[in-house]
Every structure is written in C-alpha cells, then in structure tokens.
Amino acid sequence: MNYNEKVKICVDRLKHSKKIFVITGAGVSAESGIPTFRGKDGYWKNQSPQKLASPEGFAEDPKLVWEWYDYRRRLIKGCEPNPAHYSLSKLERKYDHFLIATQNVDGLHQRASSLNVVEIHGSIWEVKCTKDGKVEKNTETPLKELPLRCSCGALMRPNVVWFGETLPEKQLREIYDFIKTGDVDFTFIIGTSALFYYIIDWAQTVKNYGSFLVEINLDNTAISSIADIVFLNQAGIILPEITKQFI
Ligand code: NAD
Fold first, then answer.
1. Which domain does 208 fall in, by range?
2. Which of these is catalytic: 85, 97, 109, 121?
3. Among positive and negative, which fits the CA dihedral 193, 199, 201, 204?
C-alpha cells in the first residue's frame, strides 16, 4: 500500500470514528528540537539512565540529577510545539471522546492547546518534596540553587517517573477507564519505541476490542506487527497530512 492510500484509509476511518485514543512518546517532540531517549542522538546514547533517572541515582548525587533536569527544562522552554502537536490538538476538537496518553514530560501537547492529556511519566514543570510528597508547579529556568530544596528544608525532586518506579495511579486509572469500555474506534501510537510493557498492553487491549491501530514512527517497533497501518515517517509530516484531508 502506498503512502497516499494509507493516508486515505486513515481519513476514512477517522470520519467514521467517535472515540480516539492517542499514545505519544519522545518522537512526537523530536521535530521541536527535543532529543529522544533511545534514538541515534538520544540521551541514553551518552548518558546513564541509572545515574540520571532513577531513585538510586538521585540518592547518590542529587545535584547531578538536578543539573540534567535544569538543562532539559531550559532546552524545552526554548522549544515550540511542532505540526504534529498542533494536528492532534485540531483533531481533538472534532471529537467528544479523545485522549492523549503521553510519555513526554515536556508539556508541549498542552502548549499546542490539547485538552485531554494524561502525562503518565509526570511533568518536568512540577517538583515534589521528598519528605511529604507535596507537588508544586515550578517553571523557573534556570533554577537558582541546585539541588532544589523545599521550604521545609527537604530535597525536592522532579515530579517525573524514574526507572524502577511505578506509574501514578490516578493517571493509570484515567487511561484504563478510557479504553476498558472497548469502544475506542481509532488509535494512534506515535513516536514511541514502545519498550515499556504498559504501552504494548494498551495498544494490544484496544486492538483486541477492535480499534483501528495506526503507528507513526521512523522505525518499526514491537507494535508494528499488530498495527493496521504503519507510517515509517516523521509525525510532523504525516499528522498534518491526515488532518488536512480530514478537517
Ligand atoms: P524513545 O526515545 O525510547 O523513542 C522515541 C521513538 O520516537 C523512537 O522509536 C523513534 O524512532 C521515534 N521518532 C523519532 N523521531 C520521530 C519523528 N520525528 N516522528 C515519529 N517518530 C519519531 O522514547 P519513548 O518511546 O518516549 O520512551 C519513553 C522514554 O522515556 C524511554 O526511552 C525512557 O528512557 C524514558 N524515561 C525517562 C524517564 C526520565 O527521564 N525521568 C523516566 C522513565 C522513562
């Protein structure tokens, strides 16, 4: 099937769909200039996830971890949402039931005016007290003093999910509540290496219920074999093309 045929099928399916589920990963923000984690120029090529994104790494060297998050916060602040984010936000306006489950902590979906976004790995713009767990919004860049401390004196940490930690319960429930009713008509899975079991589980669940599954990625992933359509291309090219023909 060629590219134009794939786009046409997606557009037709979207026209006949009432409920849309979208899973996104770092690839959806790559065209905004934010590095992915596992790609060619990804963070984990030269840096250690154990040192920078785990509770053990934070306990060992909180300043180093905070320096990395401060660097990423500054980088993200200088980036804008790209056409992939904006296309999803436009598409959402056409549906009563539309949910984005994102692994991204950058907030770019919200900056593109997406409404129903569940951040399953937390937000880089929130900080959490390591003593009482209180979460605060914090968008200051650069942070003045690292590691960041709470007014109570305890260390603050980024409110993100690190390796070895479980996903936040409330966000998990929101996603399961959305997909468990078995009526998702159309699912996009965009820019994720799909290495976490829950990503595969959500895609497989909606697929088992009969959802049409479309993957957009530069490479094949564990999802590709169950997807109805795979676009091996940039999200910032494919999504605007689909929405242009649909809206
Ligand atoms: P990833 O880096 O593993 O994968 C990015 C995917 O996007 C790749 O499959 C790549 O082919 C694709 N891609 C790149 N550019 C694209 C484009 N323009 N259009 C479409 N696709 C594109 O990121 P992920 O899948 O979001 O995985 C979640 C990541 O979160 C993990 O890699 C993990 O390391 C990371 N993580 C970070 C923390 C933290 O920082 N605190 C905690 C847990 C997990």
1. 1-33+81-121+166-247
2. 121
3. negative
